[in-house]
Amino acid sequence: MWLAAFPQEERAKAAEAMQLFKEANRVLNRLDEEITVQCIYRLCSANAEGDNLLIEDTVFPLLRQQTPHPDGSPFLCLSDFIRPLSSGVADTIGLFASSVSAESENYYKDDPYKHLLVQTLTDRLAEAATEKMHEHVRKVVWGYAPEESLSIPDLLAEKYQGIRPAVGYPSLPDQSVNFILDELLDMKQIGITLTENGAMYPHASVCGLMFSHPRSHYFAVGKIGEDQLEDYARRRGKPIDEMRKFLAANLKS
């Protein structure tokens, strides 16, 4: 019946999609029996000082947009969504990490198609666990949205209050801040280790920040100039060439 709903010329592609769905569910059933998905989170006192977050005793440098917007809207930085230090009042920020157990890395290594399917599914499982964790934090642990009651489509449309930008995503593009998050979260508690470049292992892992500000929203930092790169390297306490490597995709040509 599902296939019959498609025009004749699209049914071959729809049949392939249906087969993929069936195979993914078979693999998912195996994963469900053999792997674990774990999350860790922490709520910390925080303030903003310029483009830095001050998370308890740790400085967490951030980047600010530099490319003008056609509508003249402000140049955003994630620190804009945290109460400034000059206010004299502490704010709260959330930190999180989620990961799928490493044994999944070895499944179907001799079958490239199924191995890729496992990688795709475990990535989605890590993201799904993060979504569930974030809901629990909003409604219970942090408790700033105790009456929240959203459907799955509404959750997927991010209709809740607050955001959780992950490291490597457009508003938090510098992978090296994983080292700062690891100091604050101790991610090895859920089996996550970092390479010398700050990449997470197992690969089906995600980490980042949680903001509760009602007007917080996702954005892309976009391209930055040499002036901000130099300032950011200084705030990170790293050589500018090292930061240039981590931010190559964000540098103006």
Automatic annotation (TrEMBL):
Ranges where the AdoMet activation domain occurs: 1-253
Official protein name in the record: Vitamin B12 dependent methionine synthase, activation domain protein
Domain of life: Bacteria
Transmembrane domains' residue ranges: none
Keywords (A to Z) from UniProt: Methyltransferase, Transferase
